[in-house]
Each structure stands twice: as C-alpha cells, then as structure tokens.
Amino acid sequence: MRAVTRRYLIGFAAWLPFFLLWTGVALSSGMASVREALTGSFVSMGSAGVLAVPVWLACERWPWPSGFRLRFYALQLLLALFYALAWTIALFALDYLFIGNSTLWSGAAWGRSLKMGSRNHFTNERNGPETNAT
Q1: What's the number of domains the chain is made of?
Q2: Distance (Å, rounded) from C-alpha 41 to C-alpha 22?
Q3: Which alpha helices (DSSP H) does the chain contain, by range?
C-alpha cells in the first residue's frame, strides 16, 4: 500500500509543474482572473493527470518491445484514441460543471482536444512507470 501511495505522490509531483505553468499562461493572457486561471488549469491538467494513471498501468501491462512489432504500435494508436476521447469528454464535462456552459462544443475544439489528448498519451507512455518509479 505504501508503494502505491508513493507512486501516486510521484505522479502528482510530476503533474504539478504543468498545472502551475498552465495557470501562469492563463494569467499572463490578461483575460482571466486568478480564479478562472486556477479553475481552467484544474480542469485541463487535473483531468490529464488523473487519466495518466491508466496510462501508467498500461505501461506496466504492455512494455515497449525490444524490436518493431506492428501489433504493439496498433495497440498504442488505439489506446491513444481512447485517452484522447476520455480527456476530451472530461474537459467538456468539467467545463460544463464549473462554468455552467461549454464554449468548446465546436468541431474545431474537438479536433484540438483529441490531438492534444493523443499527444499526452504518447508522452506519458514514453515516460512510463519504469522512469518514474524508484
């Protein structure tokens, strides 16, 4: 149990800089209050951080092969799609929950969110538990 808690704390510590950076960027725009910046950062980076946990588990279940295996890369594309969809749905749901109406319901917003979500999956996959666990 202690090892699991430690792993989650490591994951939290890894995502905290992204949360702070996202908040700082939102504040530097001059168009968001501190509360709006913190809420937006929580929604974006918090949901991505929570979804990183299944990615870590997938890293343990399907580690990188030593050679090229088409089946492995097809699985990675499928998992990236699931991650991107889950992250996009989480963003819209949390945006609706915290703001009351989602301004992100356009096709372009879905495209950007899916692209960012799949990029997050591959970043988490490359920096999986074997590089974060001590």
Answers
A1: 1
A2: 6
A3: 2-28, 34-41, 47-61, 70-99, 107-126, 129-132
Specify the DSSP class assigned to residue 63: P
Q: What is the pLDDT of residues 86-100, one digit of tens each?
A: 888 888 888 778 766
**What is the Cα–Cα distance from 85 to 43, expressed in whole angstroms?**
15
Q: Calculate the alpha carbon distances from 119 to 1, 39, 123 in Å.
A: 31, 22, 6
Encoded tokens for 122:
């591959």
SS3 of 105, please? coil
pTM value is 0.61
> Taking Cα atoms as reference points, which of 109, 110, 117, 57 lies closest to residue 87?
117
pLDDT of residue 51 exceeding 70, the answer is: yes
Domain range spanning residue 43?
2-132
| C-beta of residue 91 within 8 angstroms of C-beta of residue 44 | yes
Tell me which amino acid residue 29 is: S
